[in-house]
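can u pls check wat happens w/ heme C
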Amino acid sequence: MITRSDRRRLLRALAAGGWLAASLLAAGCRNDMRDQPRSDPLESSRFFPDGLASRTPVPGTVARGQLGGDLHFETGMVSGKLATTFPYPVSAEALARGRQRFAIFCTPCHGQLGDGQGMVVRRGFKQPSSFHVDRLRAAPPGYFFDVMTNGFGTMSSYASQVPAADRWAIAAYIRALQRSQHATLADLPPAEQARLLAKPGAADTAAAPDSLPAAGWDWLLPVGGDRLNPLGGDSLRHPGSEDSGHE
Ligand code: HEC
């Protein structure tokens, strides 16, 4: 028969055993945590031939968020002011790229024409002002780059979705869009002017010109700095304009 004192002794033994098991387990945990099979920074290692646990980054590695040192290209600012020039010579390829990126990222709100009548706006989102108002026609390229990079009011930043080279290409395309809504016949290459004048009404059906006008781009897309165009293609700047647009 189990007496009352027997039962108490049994309980005490069980409690002591439980405590022992728990403390052994805890000690085991502590040791595992302390001796994890990982390398600490600056630790030596016998695994790698150079004896270092940390690997040296591949040459040219850029940490996320680290600037490449070209503030004009990365921030759209020159000497603390919005850049009035593009950081690389704009090519026909860059304009085509800008047009494509604009269609993907901007038209839902700003519309194909940049008039602020995109589908999302027509469904109730805040309407941005048209790119064709005088204030935005006079805004420097750096302004458009800055808005895309940092956002503007209700509009969020596009820096994480659109790389810097593409943001500049979009800014260049917006310039071309703005020009397109304020163009005169004199802006067309002579061959195109002749074609339009020869056939009244041909403007509606005329195919896009095969080549872009060779001159006049410095006014529209001035370049500052000597960065190569990261999007490829020959510059639209015409010969003899090498020094204009530099700050
Ligand atoms: C989701 C809708 C939306 C998208 C997409 C969008 N925007 Fe905007 N954008 C706006 C709105 C709304 C404003 C006005 C914000 C305000 O006034 O609060 C604005 C403002 C701007 C402005 C400033 C205009 C001014 O009045 O000074 C620029 C420039 C601009 N957007 C360019 C772009 C470009 C370039 C893209 C594509 C990369 C883009 N936006 C994509 C909604 C959008």
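The two ends are 103 Å apart (CA to CA).
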